[in-house]
Amino acid sequence: MRLLLQGGQVWTAGERAPFRADVLVEDQRIAAIWRDSKGTAADAHTDAHTDTQTRDCTGCTLIPGLVDGHSHLSFAEPANFADHGNIPPEEHVLITMRHARIVLEAGFTSVLSAGAAKPRLDVVIRNAINAGHIPGPRMLAASPELTNTGNLGDERMMHIYRESVGMIVDGELEMLKTCRLLIREGVDTLKLNVSGNHTVKGSRQDQTIMTDIELGTAARTAHAHGKRLAVHTRAADSILLALKHQADILYHLEFADARSLDALEQQKERIFVAPAFGLLHNTIFEAEAWGITRAKAEAAGMMQQFEGVLAVYPELKRRGVRVLVGGDYGFPWTPHGTNARDLEHFVKFFGYSPVEALTAATKTGAAAMLLAGQTGEIREGFLADIVAVEGDPTKDVRLLQDKKKLKMVMKDGRIHVPAA
Ligand SMILES: [Zn+2]
To answer: How far is the CA of 12 from the centre of ligand 1 (A)?
Structure first.
């Protein structure tokens, strides 16, 4: 199958500015990019190959498919984690499958999962997507959030057993067995809650709850199997501990101090980080309808997180640490499919230019997915993950939030938007 995307401009993610070009897609790959303002090369091609289909992209910018670096496709938009435990696995698979389609149709052709709500949810959805059985983004499947008794993800009470999005693991042996079990079941990434959280009474956001031996055991087990470790690290000590054990992807980092910033910079060739800012932003400013007033958010310590992010991420950018777009979407006030809002946040709050935010959401994201050289850029030979946006998102990234302006979402050369 040959499809010619004609008449648009192209932003490759390898160059700063978009340029006028026609793009030829052959099967699942980008076969040719003709930088030709008059389109004569493309015309010559279609004259020679009458079986080539064409698609008019006039007025659009073609950009690489977007990558969400902190995704929870199985988060079912509930108000709390215990609600996830109440969803039976069968329904939960269908919910996750639906989210996979919604996120793909929002222009995200790859997602790096930062935690599944049940052990095999990400794995089965990833496998079904890869097999072509259901629509969805390329996906690296995560474990549930591995946590400790009393830490983020433990919703039990003394008299009530409750499931949540966590698996509770205490001590070296439990960690070892749980990590090996999850790797056996097919996860790509082990997710660990190293710091506490503002939502947990006894395990605060600025405390490091997981022990050196637990984290080290998880890291050694993940790496022994060629898997990766992603960590929920808010506290400065948690960041240092995670880096000591070669964690691959670090989330949040709001309370990074001078020492942990230096440590992050030292490992910048190896690691990826993400603020997961969308959830924080909306919980403070847009969750009143769900009973989270500004006063409640402030009392929980969320303004400290907010101020932390605003100080830490421009600094990480300055130091050249690779920051991923991805905002913890999947809560009622951060619904799936609104993921592109994070790009606006990068521009508004972290000092990114629109092109830098787009690069974080494409080329950098693809590297974090271990797909550098295969996707994340519009280049000959790359997988055809292409989004056509009406207007120029290199000038205004907010265009990506408007579904009416997403004129085409293509993954692997197959068009998902508009629906066939
Ligand atoms: Zn998350």
So the answer is: 29
**Residue whose entry in the numeric block shows the structure tokens 């009622």:** 332
Tell me the CA–centroid distance for residue 194 and ligand 1, in Å: 13
CA of 1 to the centre of ligand 1 (A): 39
Residue 151 and residue 131 share a domain: yes
Last residue of a domain, one of 292, 316, 339: 339
Q: Ligand 1 center to residue 113 CA distance, Å?
A: 9
371 neighbors 138 (Cβ within 8 angstroms): yes
Same structural domain, 60 and 72: no
Query: Which residue range forms the structural domain that includes residue 18?
Result: 2-64+376-417
Q: Cα of 4 to ligand 1 centre, how many Å?
A: 38
Distance (Å) from CA 261 to ligand 1 centroid: 21
In the chain, the number of structural domains is: 2
Ligand 1 centre to CA of 324 (Å) is 13
- Residue type for 273, please? V
* CB 380 within 8 Å of CB 100: no
The yes-or-no verdict on residue 37 having pLDDT over 80 is no
Last residue of a domain, one of 310, 339, 368: 339
Burial of residue 393 (number of CB atoms within 10 Å: 0-12, 13-18, 19+): buried
Mean pLDDT across the chain, nearest whole number? 96
Judgement on whether residues 86 and 121 belong to the same structural domain of the protein: yes
Q: Is the pTM here over 0.85, yes or no? A: yes
Q: Which residues does 251 contact at the CB level (< 8 Å), separation at least 6? A: 70, 114, 230, 231, 232, 233, 273, 274, 275, 276
- Reading phi first (left if > 0) and then psi (alpha if -120 to 50, else beta), residue 262 is in alpha
| Cβ(392)–Cβ(18) below 8 Å | yes
| pLDDT tens-place string over residues 225-264 | 999 999 999 999 999 999 999 999 999 999 999 999 999 9
Interval 367-376: pLDDT, tens: 999 999 999 9
**CA 71 to ligand 1 centroid distance, Å:** 7
CA of 351 to the centre of ligand 1 (A): 23
CB distance 408 to 388 below 8 Å = yes
Distance from the CA of 100 to the center of ligand 1, in angstroms? 16
Judgement on whether residues 42 and 85 belong to the same structural domain of the protein: no
**How remote is the CA of residue 392 from the centroid of ligand 1, in Å?**
30
Distance 23 CA to ligand 1 centre (A): 36
